[in-house]
Write a structure and sequence with these properties.
Blueprint: H1 2-30, E1 36-41, H2 44-57, E2 61-66, E3 71-75, E4 87-98, E5 103-115, E6 123-127, H3 131-145
Length: about 150
């Protein structure tokens, strides 16, 4: 009797403990809020062009751009997996917003897509802390400081 009660309690605790991780994974799929923000002086079109150049500069392939929506999205190369970890790919999304003071705000979201061979297909998780945020903003700063071509 005691063993069955312990098994039931242990099973319930195991299920409840796993729910937090599942909830975090599910929320990560739908969370589109920018993780890192920076403001830039300049016109929207110039910052949009610079955001695209910075994306290419870090080795990402542009997958979607829209000046009207203030969107620049790119993906890294697929990194093959090994027997203990599946293939993965990073997606970087830049959302540009024109502010009333004439500046442009750049919001950045890095998401990792991982294919582990588990049921349910690929998993998409927003990465909140990664050195790529700093690297991308440094490249964007550099591109914006370069003189325009042809001058």
């Amino acid at each position: 009797m005691r063993i069955s009660v312990l098994l039931v309690v242990g099973g319930l605790l195991g299920l409840l403990g796993g729910c937090a991780e599942v909830s975090q994974r599910v929320m990560g799929r739908f969370d589109t809020s920018p993780v890192k923000l920076r403001r830039y002086a300049g016109e929207m079109s110039a910052v949009h062009q610079a955001a695209q150049a910075a994306m290419r500069n870090i080795g990402y392939v542009l997958t979607e751009t829209s000046l009207r929506e203030g969107l620049v999205r790119g993906r890294s190369a697929v990194q093959p997996g090994d027997p203990t970890r599946g293939a993965r790919q990073f997606e970087l999304t830049v959302r540009l917003t024109e502010l009333p003071d004439g500046q442009v705000e750049a919001g950045l979201v890095l998401a990792e897509q991982r294919e582990d061979g588990l049921p349910g297909g690929a998993q998409r998780l927003v990465v909140r802390e990664h050195s790529l945020y700093t690297t991308y903003f440094e490249r964007l700063d550099r591109v914006l400081q370069e003189p325009p071509a042809g001058r």
